[in-house]
């Protein structure tokens, strides 16, 4: 079959099972866009900014576990992808980005719309390619998908010069194994390490499991639950680990870290054993490393060997696929009870409940925490929630318990404002049968709000909840706590979000009172297409608990106790 | 001669695919992770598609394991060994241009060269170019002796190293599609 490079790209995408691509055309990628006409099986979503394309591919990937694909032209098109690639890199999300490049003969000549894209994206991709020879193209695309989804997943970029897209060769899809001699994702653990880990677990009096994104990525939900239940080990989750075990489970004690549950943080600090599974001891999770969980032995399992002993030195470090390693470990783990330890954690939880804003009588005021908790209630706790970054994101983590994997999609590592709206669109394309809500702040929404036009053009059924406090709320919180309330560059003059939505042809509703939330959720979900609900919330609200940057994990700023506030 | 062990200096040898941009990937990794490179050499091997890097770093053993783990994350890196853990040989080459503008300095340079695995490549009434090929600390020692005479120019290749005996670091790697030459057959 004689095909052009552009047709080979589409042919290879088809064979990888790609059904949707998010992109934006331009000069250097035009041959590929022209070839798309022959491949109606692959739906192209025209974004309004290439950053949106990379976030949509990311949202699609996280919702489905499949590789998300975005396409952009050379130069500015490609550089606009960078934030999305960096986001996917930090959160181990499998995406393949295809960019056009100036013809090979022009490379290095500062040609129109030329950028050294493989150079620019080198530190924010798992791997990237500049294709000089059309013969290599099918091999590279197949490799790129394999690299993106295997091991610790991540973004892969393929830069394809225009002449390579136009070159015509006899196409044969590569057969057989992909040979990458240096690329060997670890699978099984050494049995001696497994035995050492089991011994620590069996001897522990105060164990805690720290469950991260790796649980979801390796599909180790059942194994995690078995381990926790058999040895009665409390489980705390990272932000990206949410959904790894149902949060209604009595052993799940919530998220850890800077805005984690107090009980989880106290448990980590007082534990005698941390069992870290598919997480990477990010600074937002550990607080001050010098005082982090000082009296515990530590077991760390991660697919990426370079995460072991990176931030926290561990007693047993295992590089392997989490599900495989847990299956190896489980037969060695004895049934156990830790009633005193669990009781201690229950005390911390009770204390936290006494400080919970949900218990407060807030009268006529609308608090972001309440909105998110009501969203949980009125969506039956079962929607796919895609957040942006900031206070609403942390409140989501606190007030929207997740029962199943891949129902929270959020930019954890990079903390990318503007992620929410496009990622929600991508997620809905991946899981059209699910209810998808984007929860975004007024700041982050405005970074990528052009994608409302994409949602409208595609009539994609995404519900967008703007938590509008007319501030860059999390930055304002830091200014309140650490900069003497000097609100430098955090108050926002906002557009009328409902009129804005109307201009895009998106139905919208404004909510200012708590009794309107239920109706608004029902309204949004009754419309088969994009909707926008603006929740006008209290302006200067805080997210508690909070571990100040650099403080020890147990040194949390807390909301006052309700029982004491009443007195 | 057994290779000398210097304080905390660790030698890593990596086999990498001989493809455009691979050296950039390695160097970018060291910069991004804030690993300091003491020396880095790169060259071809007997396999046309494989290049070999020797990287010397000055750091704790645990951190060297992290470097190795990070190097393995680069798809084009085929094999990584921390060679300083095992018996090995290593060589550094230096060219030193030293002042020889009187009889005394000429005699001194000649005498020093006799005590080291060194030779004079070029000598005149003003300067001499001395070559030494030796383990790194031997090269350092000779440079220290030449310094008082008056070094005017110097270049070193950085360390190359190889395991002793049957510790063979090799690969049967072949690219799926032959890499087209860009003229010099060397792509890094």
Written description of the protein model:
The complex is a heterodimer of chains A (567) and B (188). In chain A, α7 links the parallel β6 (127-130) and β7. In chain A, the strands form 4 sheets. In chain A, strands 3-2-4-5-7-6 form a 6-stranded parallel beta sheet, sandwiched between helices. Chain A folds into 3 domains: 2-170, Thiamin diphosphate (ThDP)-binding fold, Pyr/PP domains (Rossmann fold, 3-Layer(aba) Sandwich), CATH 3.40.50.970; 191-350, Rossmann fold (3-Layer(aba) Sandwich); 356-536, Thiamin diphosphate (ThDP)-binding fold, Pyr/PP domains (Rossmann fold, 3-Layer(aba) Sandwich). With 567 residues, chain A is of the alpha/beta class. Chain A contains 24 helices and 20 strands. The longest helix of chain A has 16 residues, at 339-354. Helices cover 38% and strands 16% of the residues of chain A. With 188 residues, chain B is an alpha+beta fold. In chain B, β2 and β3 (50-58) form a beta hairpin. Chain B has 4 helices and 9 strands, in the order βαββαββαββαββ. Chain B has 2 domains: 1-87 and 164-188, Alpha-Beta Plaits; 91-159, ACT-like. Chain A, domain 2 (Alpha-Beta Plaits). Chain B has helices spanning 22-32, 61-72, 103-115, 136-150; strands spanning 9-17, 37-44, 50-58, 77-82, 88-99, 118-123, 127-134, 151-156, 160-163. Chain B is elongated, with a radius of gyration of 19 Å. In chain B, the strands form 2 sheets. In chain B, strands 5, 6, 7, 8 and 9 form a 5-stranded antiparallel beta sheet that branches. Chain B has a 4-stranded antiparallel beta sheet with strand order 2-3-1-4. The two termini of chain B are 33 Å apart. The model of chain B is unreliable at 181-186 (pLDDT under 50). At the A-B interface, loops of A face β1, α1, α2 and β4 of B.
């Amino acid at each position: 079959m004689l095909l052009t490079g552009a047709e080979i790209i589409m042919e290879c995408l088809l064979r990888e099972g790609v059904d949707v691509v998010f992109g934006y055309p331009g000069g250097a990628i035009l041959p590929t866009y022209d070839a798309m006409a022959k491949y109606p099986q692959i739906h192209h979503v025209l974004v309004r900014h290439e950053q949106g394309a990379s976030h949509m591919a990311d949202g699609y990937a996280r919702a489905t576990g499949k590789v998300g694909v975005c396409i952009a032209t050379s130069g500015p098109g490609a550089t606009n992808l960078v934030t999305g690639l960096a986001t996917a890199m930090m959160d181990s999300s499998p995406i393949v980005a295809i960019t056009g490049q100036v013809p090979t003969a022009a490379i290095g000549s500062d040609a129109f719309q030329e950028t050294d894209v493989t150079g620019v994206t080198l530190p924010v991709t798992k791997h990237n390619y500049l294709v000089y020879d059309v013969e290599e193209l099918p091999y590279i695309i197949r490799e790129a998908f394999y690299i993106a989804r295997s091991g610790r997943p991540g973004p892969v970029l393929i830069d394809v010069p225009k002449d390579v897209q136009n070159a015509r060769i006899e196409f044969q899809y590569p057969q057989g194994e992909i040979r990458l001699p240096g690329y060997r994702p670890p699978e099984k653990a050494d049995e001696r390490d497994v035995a050492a880990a089991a011994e620590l677990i069996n001897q522990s009096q105060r164990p805690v499991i720290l469950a991260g994104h790796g649980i979801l990525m390796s599909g180790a939900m059942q194994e995690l639950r078995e381990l926790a239940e058999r040895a009665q080990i409390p489980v705390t989750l990272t932000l990206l680990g949410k959904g790894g075990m149902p949060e209604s489970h009595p052993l799940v004690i919530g998220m850890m870290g800077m805005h984690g549950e107090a009980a989880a943080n106290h448990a980590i600090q007082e534990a005698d054993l941390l069992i870290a599974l598919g997480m990477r001891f990010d600074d937002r999770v550990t607080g001050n490393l010098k005082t982090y969980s000082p009296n515990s032995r530590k077991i760390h399992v991660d697919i990426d060997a370079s995460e072991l002993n990176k931030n926290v030195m561990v007693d047993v470090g295992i590089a392997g696929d989490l599900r495989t390693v847990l299956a190896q470990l489980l037969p060695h783990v004895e049934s156990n009870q830790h009633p005193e330890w669990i009781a201690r954690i229950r005390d911390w939880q009770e204390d936290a409940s006494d400080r919970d804003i949900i218990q407060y009588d807030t009268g006529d005021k609308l608090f972001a925490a309440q909105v998110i908790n009501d969203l949980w209630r009125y969506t039956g706790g079962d929607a796919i929630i895609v957040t942006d970054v900031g206070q609403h994101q942390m409140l989501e983590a606190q007030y929207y318990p997740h029962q199943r994997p891949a129902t929270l999609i959020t930019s954890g590592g990079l903390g990318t404002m503007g992620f929410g709206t496009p990622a929600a669109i991508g997620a809905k394309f991946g899981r059209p049968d699910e209810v998808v809500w984007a929860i975004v702040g007024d700041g982050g929404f405005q970074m990528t709000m052009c994608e409302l036009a994409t949602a409208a053009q595609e009539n994609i059924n995404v519900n967008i909840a703007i938590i509008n406090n007319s501030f860059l709320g999390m930055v304002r919180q830091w200014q309140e706590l650490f900069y003497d309330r000097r609100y430098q560059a955090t108050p926002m003059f906002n557009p009328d979000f409902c009129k804005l939505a109307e201009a895009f042809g998106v139905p919208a509703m404004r909510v200012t009172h708590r009794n309107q939330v239920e109706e608004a959720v029902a309204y949004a979900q009754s419309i088969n297409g994009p909707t926008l609900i603006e929740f006008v919330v209290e302006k200067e609200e805080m997210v508690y608990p909070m571990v100040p940057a650099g403080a020890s994990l147990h040194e949390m700023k807390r909301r006052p106790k309700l029982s004491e506030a009443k007195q | 001669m057994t290779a000398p062990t210097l304080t905390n200096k660790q030698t890593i040898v990596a086999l990498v695919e001989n493809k455009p941009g691979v050296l950039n990937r390695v160097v970018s990794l060291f910069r991004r992770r804030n690993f300091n490179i003491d020396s880095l050499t790169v060259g071809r091997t007997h396999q046309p598609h494989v290049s070999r890097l020797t990287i010397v770093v000055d750091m704790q053993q645990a951190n060297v394991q992290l470097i190795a783990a990070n190097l393995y994350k680069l798809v084009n890196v085929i094999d990584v060994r921390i060679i300083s853990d095992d018996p090995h040989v290593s060589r550094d080459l230096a060219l030193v241009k030293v002042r020889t503008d009187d009889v005394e300095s000429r005699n001194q340079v000649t005498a020093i060269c006799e005590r080291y695995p060194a030779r004079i490549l070029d000598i005149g009434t003003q300067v001499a170019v001395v070559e030494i090929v030796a383990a790194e600390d031997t090269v350092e020692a000779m440079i220290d002796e030449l310094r008082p005479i008056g070094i005017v120019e110097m270049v070193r290749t950085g360390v190359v190293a190889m395991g002793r005996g049957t510790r063979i670091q090799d690969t049967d790697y072949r690219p799926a599609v032959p890499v087209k030459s860009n003229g010099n057959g060397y792509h890094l």
